[in-house]
Amino acid sequence: MPEGSNPTTEESVARHTQADAVRLDAIRKVYGRRRNAVLALEGVTIGFERSAFTAVMGPSGSGKSTLLNVAAGLDRPTSGSVVVDGTELTAMTEAALTRLRRERIGFVFQAFNLLPALTVYQNVTLPARLAGRRPDRAKATRVIESIGLGDRMGSRPAELSGGEQQRVAIGRALVGEPAVIFADEPTGSLDTTTGREVLALLRDSVHEHGRTVVMVTHDPMAASYADRVVFLADGRFVGQLRSASAEAIAGRMTHLGAWRDASVPVTGSRTA
């Protein structure tokens, strides 16, 4: 087992404080049943600190995407507890989860997920409209200006570059002042220069505006923008680095890959 192997649930719970915007305790996630069962997460206990930028990494099939989906309330764990901004998610109804995601969680995806018929301003304010609220134009304008698109508010996605579209997606996540923003490979479809601009924007939202960002990535350079990098392997939390360089992160990933290749899974198949 690599350095930083998963502690007992009791030890981890004792270390969790109100500083955690998101807390997962003893999370297990199994897809399917019996012979067709796929074990994605196995007893993961971890906290994501408030007003911090955390990257989640691991080899293919390590469970990092599943972890993000469970933490964001997009998927329910088979067992264990998920707490976001002080609210336990696992017993909530689907309607209550939908409200919580709209009001307290922001999302940034690799595919941008913008509506092509809407302008920059309309895409950024869409969550408020979906929640039945009248958008705060002054606040939305400030957010759009802060992401460098103040002169493009009337533009539609087809008129923007990939980096500009991802900026719109970040603005949409920021405008509701969520407790946490979950980002799934946000630079995966961008070139290196544009990707760094987007990562700097996410980092600034944390360090200058106190947001909380949890980002899944496969890219050590992207992860180096985070305050903390946590590593998964075979569905388990296996270590972390703080304020690490891309080289140090890449070295840890290489070590995890070699360890995983030499290991035999405890049970069942694995998934990402």
CATH class category name: Alpha Beta
The oligomeric state is single chain
Strand content: 15-25%
Whole-number total of structural domains? 1
Give the topology string: H per helix, E per strand.
HEEEHEEHEHHHHEHEHEEH
CATH topology: Rossmann fold
- Shape call: globular
Radius of gyration: 19 Å
Strand arrangement in the largest pleated sheet: 6-7-8-3-9-10
Give the terminus-to-terminus CA distance: 20 Å
Unreliable stretches (pLDDT < 50, length at least 5) are 1-16, 264-271
Class computed from helices, strands and strand pairing = alpha/beta
Mean pLDDT value: 87
Compute the number of helices: 10
CATH superfamily: P-loop containing nucleotide triphosphate hydrolases
Q: How helix-rich are the residues, as a percent range?
A: 25-40%
- Main sheet: strands, sense, barrel: 6 strands, mixed
Q: Work out the number of β strands.
A: 10
Using the 3D structure, state the CATH architecture.
3-Layer(aba) Sandwich
Describe this structure in words.
- With 272 residues, the protein is an alpha/beta fold.
- The chain has one domain: P-loop containing nucleotide triphosphate hydrolases (Rossmann fold), CATH 3.40.50.
- It has ten helices and ten strands.
- The strands form two sheets. It has a six-stranded mixed β-sheet with strand order 6-7-8-3-9-10, sandwiched between helices. A four-stranded antiparallel β-sheet has the order 2-1-4-5, with helices on both faces.
- A hairpin with a 2-residue loop joins strand 4 and strand 5.
- Helix 6 packs across helix 7 and helix 7 packs parallel to helix 8.
- The longest helix has 16 residues.
- The chain is globular.
- The N terminus and C terminus are likely disordered.
